[in-house]
Amino acid sequence: MIPVSASPRLRDLLRSAPSGSLRVLHRGRDAVYVEVAGRCVGVVGVRATAVPCALRSRFDDLCTPDGELPGAEAYLRDGDIHLDGRPVRIGRLVDVTVPSLPSTASSVAAVPVPPAAVAGLVGPVPTTITATDVARIIGRGDGLTPLGDDVLCGWLAIHRAAGVATPDVDAAVRVNADRTTLLSATLLDCALHGEVLPEFAAYVLSLGTPDEPATAARLASVGHTSGAGLLHGARLALSALQGVAA
């Protein structure tokens, strides 16, 4: 058995999905991603990014007892994913929701200059993201989580942290979700529900404190460009929200 922790919403998804074989989207020593009821669900080890749509194990790697890469076979039975015949069982629930913005967040700097990789996607630095911007940047970039989507996730998550509704952007994300990868579409849905990486939650909690530079650096280091995209989207949202508050 592979004991794991998961968010309540992910647990409920697995419980409600029909039993049967699962399509494997990615296989690796540290992470396996499968499709469950039209969503991407990960099973990850301690060295993998703890995305909010993942079942988190404490294993150093997920290889089979024979040392083979995991995920040659995957199926769902009674709410449990099985990898190569091993049940992946949820034993603990974790909170993946973004924290509320602290009062110290008001001291965050104004609109940032984006990293070069981000600037190529978003063009001139905007003061916010609109529904029109969503159609332009969703799915833009390489990898399982295109960089444009990471920017959107960061922007959405900060608005959830602030308790500020973004109905037009939300609708545009849902309409355009089929233009990106299944993993990225799932993470966008997570952001719409205010679900984030641990590194993102730590960054939000640190805003306006002496710890902010360090947590921002840790967030920016996630993945190849994912963390940089999340951080830039978050800072765009913070700058726009501060302008509204002023």
Overview of the molecule:
With 246 residues, the chain is an alpha+beta fold. The protein folds into 2 domains: 2-93, no CATH class; 103-245, no CATH class. It has 9 helices and 9 strands. Strands 2-7-8-9-1-6-5-4-3 form a 9-stranded mixed beta sheet, sandwiched between helices. α4 packs parallel to α6 and α7 runs antiparallel to α8.
Largest sheet, in brief, is: 9 strands, mixed
**What proportion of the residues is helical, as a percent range?**
25-40%
End-to-end CA span: 54 Å
Shape: globular
Order of helices and strands: EHEEEEEEEEHHHHHHHH
Number of domains: 2
Number of DSSP E strands: 9
Strand order of the largest sheet: 2-7-8-9-1-6-5-4-3
Write the layout of secondary structure elements.
Elements: E1 2-6, H1 8-16, E2 20-21, E3 23-27, E4 31-36, E5 39-44, E6 54-57, E7 74-77, E8 80-83, E9 86-93, H2 116-122, H3 131-137, H4 147-162, H5 167-176, H6 182-192, H7 198-206, H8 212-220, H9 226-245
Question: Would you summarize the structure shown here?
Answer:
By secondary structure, this protein is an alpha+beta fold. 40% of the residues lie in helices and 18% in strands.
List key phrases describing it.
246 residues; alpha+beta; 2 domains; globular; single chain; 9 helices
